[in-house]
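$ ./design --mode recover --in tokens.txt
reading tokens...
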């Protein structure tokens, strides 16, 4: 699972000249989904790649990889 560093992503979006809604449209995701990502929800690798490419940054600069931990029963 990938979760974004919210402040970094918001800053990069602003520097790119977009607001959240226009940026979401530019990478072909809904405003709601983009807002959820910025509020801590995990996103797919494909969407993370789109975001990073649109902002001209590395995925690792703006996303943290979180592994799901499963307990053995």
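writing sequence...
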């Amino acid at each position: 699972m990938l979760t974004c560093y919210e402040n970094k992503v918001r800053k990069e979006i602003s520097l790119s000249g977009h607001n959240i809604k226009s940026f979401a449209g530019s990478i072909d995701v809904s405003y709601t989904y983009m807002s959820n990502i910025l509020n801590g929800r995990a996103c797919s690798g494909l969407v993370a790649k789109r975001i990073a490419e649109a902002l001209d940054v590395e995925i690792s600069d703006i996303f943290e990889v979180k592994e799901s931990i499963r307990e053995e029963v």
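exit 0
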